[in-house]
Each structure stands twice: as structure tokens, then as C-alpha cells.
Amino acid sequence: MSPEARKTRLLAEGGLALAGIIWGANFSLIKFALGYMPPFYYLGLRFLLAFVLVAVFSLGRLKGLTSRQWGISLVVGLCLFSGFALQTVGLTQTSPGINGLLTALYVLLVPLMIGVTTRRWPRRQVGVGILLVMGGVGVLTVSGKLSFGWGEIMTLLGTVFWSLHILALSYAAKRVDTRALTAVQLGVIGVLSLAISLLFERPTLDPGLPALATVLYTAIMGGVVAYLLMTWGQQHTSPTMAGVLMSLETVFAVIFSMLLGFDHLTVRSMLGFGLSFGGIFVAQFSARSRQLPGEGGLTAAEAAVGEVPVALNEEEEASLGEVTAEPPAT
Q1: Closest Cα partner for 191 from 65, 199, 87?
Q2: Cβ of 288: how many Cβ atoms within 10 Å?
């Protein structure tokens, strides 16, 4: 490898790590914003802004969608909305570190869901990962760090919908234009969240500068900037390295949570988080590697919303295809 290529690769890997850091910071920043504004109002503002940013460059592709493609996109958007809604409501009653950790369990749920539906069970390493995570959660529970109240339950339910979204997106990405699919998902989240907020919450037109700054950060930095870093970075490093670096999101979710006082560092919490992270990384290594947008891996939708990496290996995608076999959309 030439010095120039080596330098480019280092910059690319640094960019991927930065994307993980940006997404990891989102958890604490959202927790902070929820002290100023109700959860669905936050989601509505964030995703309508993200929708506008994406839709400006996707109008032609949106117009070209067939009714069937619209239907597929709306279903995927509903899965993503459910994941975000449950995760964000859960965050009002739990710490960013725990919220980030429980959300990351999608890495284990996806191969298990594929196993249940196709009878093609995940590799042995995924089982090891599950045991490590269970051990970590057990340590956190015994130490009093993790108690399964409504916040944790809502977050776990959200993780189920993250996993369903990954499976649905793997199917949809091969049948719907990526930009159009991204825009529809963001629009679904924004419109539904704002509608729920107007019906059941008491949103204010001026939630305060700190809250608005968080909305802008999570929509722009957590979306557009992180997406650009991810897209460019994956072109200049291996898929495995990209997956590991972007998985740092969960680690930094806990780090930022501790730095900002939402979580407190103890020996037991270090052990619990360490075991859980280890299990997630083992499952990540064994299950697959991330790919470029539009190739069945991390898509623009994931980057635009932040926090939700997506990747299925060829065997998993083939299994999923057998379950949801339909002719490609035209």
C-alpha cells in the first residue's frame, strides 16, 4: 500500500470512528432535549427537518415510485417510527447509557429472528455473544445499575422494531430507490410524531435554544455529516473495520452518559457494560460486515436518522428472501 493510500485509509477510518462518536453522543443530547420538550414533539421537528434535507434532492425519485413501492416504503417507515418512538419515550425514564446498550441488542435479535422464520440458525459466535450480553445485563441488574422499569421495557420493545426494520429494509432496498425510500421513512416519522404530539402532548413553539440546538445537531450532524463520513469512509477501508468502528456508537453512548452525569462509573458497571459490549462485538464480527448504501447494507436512511446500523450477510438475505419472496417492484 502506498503512503498516500495508507493516509487515505487512516483518514477514512477516522471518519468512520467520528460517525460512531456523533451517533453515540445523540443519546445524551436527546436525553437533555427531552428535559425541555416532549418526546414526540422532538421527533417531529427532528425528522421533518431531516425529511426536507433529503427530499430536496429526491423529488424526482419520489414522483417515480409506483403504488406498490409506496406501500413497501410506508411499511418500512412505520417500523422505523415504532423503533424511534419507543426508544425515545424509554429514554425519558432511563439513562442514555442503558438506552444505548439495550438498543444495540438488535445485533443479536436480527439473526435470531431470521433463525425463527427460516430455521437457519445463526453461527455459534452469535450464541456466545448472547451469553456475554446476558452476563453483562445480569451484572448490571445485580449491582442495581439496571432495573427493568417502563423505560427499559419501552427501549427493549423499540429494539424489537429496530430489528424488524432491518429485515424490512433489507427487502425494500432491492425494490425501491434508496433516496426515495429514505425520504419516505423520514417523512413517516416526522408526520406521525408531530400528529401524536399535537393530539396528546403540549408542544410549545419556543422550547428554548438548547432544545432547538439539539434538534439541529441530531438532524444535521447525526444525519447528513455522519452519513457523508460513513459513505466516504467505507469506500477506503474493509467492511469489517467499518463495522467495528461504527459499532463504537454504543461505547460512546455510555461514555458520554457518564461524562454528563447520567450514568456513574463503578467496578460492577464497568464489568457489566464490558461484558455486554464484548457480546455485541462478537455477534457483529460473526454475523456480517457492513456494506455501502444500496448494496443491502447500511443505507442512507440509517445514516439520516442516526443510531441504527444495518447489515445482513448474503446467507441471511437469501433466507429472508425465501420468507418474503415477491417479484421486484416495477
Answers
A1: 199
A2: 24
On whether the CB atoms of residues 145 and 284 are closer than 8 A, the answer is no
Nearest to 159 by CA among 93, 101, 120: 101
Checking if the pLDDT of 319 tops 60, the result is no
Q: What is the largest CA-CA distance in the chain?
A: 60
Return d(Cα 219, Cα 305) in angstroms, integer. Answer: 7
Tell whether 6 is covered by a domain: no
Alpha helices in 37-123 (DSSP H): 39-55, 59-63, 67-91, 96-103, 106-118
Please give the tally of structural domains in the chain.
Answer: 1
How far is residue 264's CA from residue 287's CA, in Å, rounded to a whole number? 32
Does some domain include residue 172? yes
Q: What is the pLDDT of residues 251-267, one digit of tens each?
A: 888 888 888 888 777 77
Query: Which helix (DSSP H) or strand (DSSP E) does residue 249 occupy?
Result: helix 248-259
Cell of residue 5, nine digits:
493510500
**Residue of 50, 327, 325 whose CA lies nearest to 185:** 50
CA distance 57 to 76: 20
Spatial contact of 224 and 304, defined as CB atoms under 8 Å apart:
yes
Range of the domain at 73: 11-323
Distances (CA, A) of 226 to 13, 17, 42, 58, 257: 13, 10, 20, 19, 20
Q: What is the pLDDT of residue 267?
A: 78
Residue 237 counted as domain residue: yes
Q: Which three cell numbers stand for residue 114?
A: 431470521
Euclidean distance between CA atoms 103 and 100, whole angstroms:
5
Is 328 a domain residue?
no
Q: What is the pTM of this model?
A: 0.77
pLDDT at 321: 42
Q: How far apart are the first and last CA of the chain?
A: 43
